[in-house]
Amino acid sequence: MRRLGLRRRRASSQDAAEAYTKAMIRLGILFFTTLVFMISNFVLYSQSSMPGLGWRYVCLPPVVLVILMAVGARYEQLGYQIGSFWAALNDLMANLGLGTYPTLVVNDGKAQIKADEDNLVARIGGPGFVIVQPGNAALVESLDGSVKVLGPGRHFLNRLQTLKEFVSLEERDAGIDKLTATTKDGIEVHVRDIRYRYRLASENFPQDGPPRSMQDPYPFSDDAVIQMTYNRNVTADGLASWHFGVNRIVDTTITDYIRENYVDHLTAPSTQGDDPRGEIYKKFNSEHARHQFKCIGADLLWIGIGHFEIPARQVAEQRVASWQAKWIGDANIVRAFGESQRMAYQELGRAEAEAEMLISIVHALEDVGAQQGDSRQKIRTIYLARIAQLLEAMGKQYLPSQENITPRQ
User: Per residue in 289-314, pLDDT tens?
Assistant: First the structure.
């Protein structure tokens, strides 16, 4: 930074010396021409047949020169709307190397001009000096179309240069109170309390912050100053400010994301892992967004999305009804599944009981079948006895115990 400031001071001194040299050359040519006219008029008059002395012709060129200077100063006063004739005359004389150079101080991103001051450097341009305080920068235009960025220090402007723009290099806090956008399913969403911070871009801007040091507390890029000055929007009210361009990119990035998604995804994402705010932050950190900010000479340092809001009450009520229907449907599915399992287990128990009954009867028949001479009545008695035993066993298994039965009073 010290080397850069030293080079800029040396360049400013060289520009001032060069401008002064050119002014002295122009002044010398003017005086030499006036002297030639004076001598020529006197000599030619003395060689003529006109009587008397020709001193009036000797005085005529200086008088004409004074009149021309006064007319030129008046023309400059009217053309640039300068309040004082003597200030315009001093500026005209400064172009010839005779007047004093005015000085303009740039601080807080603007020209420091008093209420009753008519600063010609700010109104017309050079010749004059510009003192750019630390934390500021200025852009100078020349009549040949070239531009030059002035950093902190004292700089000289020649007669062909004018000040185009001033900028503060400090970080800026800004915000948007409310944004409105329509989601993919046609529902209007408001985004409130958006806050962000930005600054003029530097040449090597790392992801974790601008490289600062005691020697260079406000690093910036000359290209960023040029982009900030010329890449601006034009509205119905005229040329928009630099802040308007930064604000427009923030607005567009958030509203475009809202238009690309459904309202449930924004306010109540159902899929685990969905993070709408995180996705918006990724958009601001993407190469596309960085390029958009770089095109207007800005670097976005931090942003807070704020919160989403649905203004339509019927939409909120409809969403609650939809969620309720979904939850009731899920509960009915769980309930139906439990009921089907209960019925299946009952059928399984009944089948097992019937199987046990049949197996028991078969075993009883095998026991009595070996005995000869048994009658059909005896077999029927065995069936009834075995069925009674099975029913008694099943009753003990499925009925509550006698200890848990409370007798009626």
Answer: 899 999 999 989 899 988 888 876 66
Q: Which two tokens stand for residue 131?
A: 């003192």
The percent of residues above 70 in pLDDT, for the chain, comes to 68
How does DSSP assign 362-398, residue by residue? HHHHHHHHTSTT--HHHHHHHHHHHHHHHHHHHHHHH
- What's the CA gap between 399 and 249, in Å, rounded? 76
CB neighbour burial string for 246-270, b if at least 16 within 10 angstroms, e if fewer: bbebbeebbbebbeebebebbbeee
Residue 180 CA: distances (Å) to CA of 43, 252, 277, 309: 85, 11, 16, 10
φ, ψ for residue 192 (rounded to 5)?
A: -115, 155
Mean pLDDT along residues 254-271: 81
In degrees, rounded to 5, the angle at the alpha carbon of residue 248 between the alpha carbons of residues 242 and 112 is 20
Would you say 76 and 93 are in contact if contact means Cβ atoms under 8 Å apart?
Answer: no
Find out whether the peptide bond into 102 is cis, omega within 30 degrees of 0.
Answer: no
The position carrying tokens 């931090």 is 302
In the sheet that holds 161-168, the strands lie side by side as 147-150, 136-142, 161-168
- Among 164, 123, 118, 166, smallest CA distance to 143 is for 164
> Cα–chain-centroid distance for residue 299?
8
Q: What is the per-residue DSSP string for 180-244?
A: EEE-TTS-EEEEEEEEEEEEE--SS--TT-----SS-SS---HHHHHHHHHS--EETTEEPPHHH
In 10 A of CB 403, how many CB atoms? 6
Beta strands in 270-399 (DSSP E): 298-304, 307-309
Answer yes or no: are the C-beta atoms of 93 and 159 closer than 8 Å: no
List residues bridging with 141 in a β-sheet: 147, 162
Integer Cα distance of 227 and 296 in angstroms: 5
Count Cα atoms within 13 angstroms, Cβ side, for 261. Answer: 19
Q: Is the pTM of this model over 0.90?
A: no
- One-letter amino acid of 79: G
Which letter does DSSP use for residue 275 in this model? -
- Cα–Cα distances in Å, from 43 out to 29, 37, 39, 174, 179? 21, 10, 6, 75, 83
- Nearest C-alpha neighbor of 111 from the set 122, 102, 103, 101: 122
How far apart, in whole angstroms, are the C-alpha atoms of residue 129 and residue 326?
A: 74
pLDDT tens across 182-205, in order?
888 788 888 989 999 999 888 654
Here the tokens at position 198 are: 């930005």
The HSE-up count of residue 282 (CA atoms within 13 Å, CB side) is 6
Residue 219 CB neighbour total at 10 angstroms: 18
